[in-house]
Amino acid sequence: xxxxxxxxxxxxxxxxxxxxxxxxxxxxxxxxxxxxxxxxxxxxxxxxxxxxxxxxxxxxxxxxxxxxxxxxxxxxxxxxxxxxxxxxxxxxxxxxxxxxxxxxxxxxxxxxxxxxxxxxxxxxxxxxxxxxxxxxxxxxxxxxxxxxxxxxxxxxxxxxxxxxxxxxxxxxxxxxxxxxxxxxxxxxxxxxxxxxxxxxxxxxxxxxxxxxxxxxxxxxxxxxxxxxxxxxxxxxxxxxxxxxxxxxxxxxxxxxxxxxxxxxxxxxxxxxxxxxxxxxxxxxxxxxxxxxxxxxxxxxxxxxxxxxxxxxxxxxxxxxxx
Length: 322
Hints:
The chain is an all-alpha fold. Helix content is about 45%, strand content about 0%. Helix 2 packs antiparallel against helix 4 (about 100-115).
């Protein structure tokens, strides 16, 4: 194919630069300063109240933000209900444990009274995720706002979420598709400092792991035997599982300390220690909680910049398109 003349190349480069600049400029920390001054107060009070009544809320809201942004960008597609003709993201297998959608619904109802047809459900999720981290002892950052709500949500798309069985190479590839680097991946994995997992997500590490090992040899033996007691085979109790670090209601760097001790619950977590590309970051975060907090906030802002579809809307009800 013949090369493009230089006169043609410059407008193309300029156009691409302009489109990229506009997409970055869409989000602004002060987006609602003139249109919904009570926004942050309403959301934080709603999230705090829900968390006081149900301690599982913070982990679920943080997971909700991750799972929303990883599918079609941060467009609140995870909030849409399934219909008779479409199974939505929230009903995809990886999202069965997200729940707490009512918290976003509650905040949305209050915001519609205070400033109707103004605040997107996607922005409510992003602000709520920041709030649950901060109220659990983690960092606070200024959330960039101005997202629009998507109109498409498919359960089949949840296959694109990172799996708890992934190795480091698979994790790096998955995060790279969202414009996130290795350090972002390790920092965002630290979100597991809040949370709980059911046995089904890690029991393969505990029984008949390989032809040579019954238990995953990367696990701390005592820890693995304790998990086997909680997750026997067959396991008839679907509610049984394990907290993902030893201070599961506090946002801290204990998650990384647990990994270095061989006590990562997921294979995807423990693999971060066994790979030279990520171990040094785990060690740095385990040593320095303030460094982890700084990098986590930075990476949350980058993840929040994964914008959804351009023809979005501000939903009046987060569960259905307008």
